[in-house]
UniProtKB/TrEMBL annotation:
This is Phosphoribosylaminoimidazole-succinocarboxamide synthase. It catalyses: 5-amino-1-(5-phospho-D-ribosyl)imidazole-4-carboxylate + L-aspartate + ATP = (2S)-2-[5-amino-1-(5-phospho-beta-D-ribosyl)imidazole-4-carboxamido]succinate + ADP + phosphate + 2 H(+). The keyword Nucleotide-binding applies. The lineage of its organism: Bacteria, Bacillati, Bacillota, Bacilli, Bacillales. Pfam families: SAICAR_synt.
Length: 233
């Protein structure tokens, strides 16, 4: 049974209690739906990449909702209720923070910065302070602390993986869910849709910015990223 349909994924119930099936779609959007396309093969790439990243995370001590990839476009995950928070970690300034705070593009942010955004399309995903998160009842003080610590740990592991691929992790967005046991776990997806990644040397983008800024082929870029991942396995 279809439980949820988002811009890039569908989530289904399965016959196994506590397990969902996620189907990655061939759809791509940017600017909260302003740009919208169907790209045959995009769902496959995101599914393959996201599964590999979750497996890399698990091998480096980071638990997630990921259970197993069951086809080119589908994976099984633990059933969680997604917390409507987009947790963004930034190692270098790019994207919305450059516009919001007038920072120089690619200026290092040391220590890395963690930001919360409200996952709400109607409101345009506004940035939230910790007090907003508390006021909206999205997380407790302890949970906010745990989310930030988890986000920074994920940043360390993901940055190391990218470095092995001779890439630099500029920033990324993650989401967390609450399992049936009440524990908070990394969920959703991690892929070039949700990260900004550039070549260490050439600074060429290996992420969705090529689609957002119409600077290249998304499918070619994601294929090149996937090949780099395969090469470090
Ligand atoms: O747009 P902004 O600069 O805040 O994005 C920061 C990071 O979060 C980028 O890597 C972007 O791909 C990711 N992001 C996302 N989904 C959103 C907003 C941002 O994956 N809705």
């Amino acid at each position: 049974m279809l439980l949820y349909e988002g811009k890039a994924k569908r989530v289904f119930n399965t016959e196994t209690d506590g397990v969902y099936r996620i189907e990655y779609k061939d759809e791509v959007t940017a600017g909260n739906g302003e740009k919208h396309d169907f790209l045959t093969g995009k769902g496959r790439l995101n599914n393959l990449i996201s599964a590999d990243i979750f497996e890399y995370m698990a091998a480096h001590g980071i638990d997630s909702h990921f259970v197993e990839r069951i086809s080119e476009t589908e994976q099984l995950v633990r059933a969680v209720d997604i917390i409507p928070l987009e947790v963004v970690v930034r190692n270098f300034a790019a994207g919305s923070i450059v516009k919001r705070l007038g920072l120089a593009s690619h200026q290092p942010l040391d220590p890395p910065l963690v930001e919360f955004f409200y996952k709400n399309d109607d409101l345009g995903d506004p940035i939230l302070t910790d007090d907003h998160v508390l006021m909206l009842g999205l997380a407790t003080t302890e949970e906010i602390k745990a989310l930030k610590a988890a986000a920074l740990k994920i940043n360390s592991v993901l940055s190391r993986m990218m470095a092995e691929m001779e890439l630099s992790l500029i920033d990324f967005k993650i989401e967390f869910g609450k399992g049936q046991d009440g524990n908070i776990v990394l969920a959703d997806e991690i892929s070039p849709d949700t990260c900004r990644i550039v070549d260490m040397e050439t600074k060429e983008n290996f992420d969705k910015d090529v689609y957002r800024n119409s600077t290249g082929s998304l499918l070619d870029t994601y294929t090149a990223f996937y090949n780099k991942m395969e090469a470090i396995k």
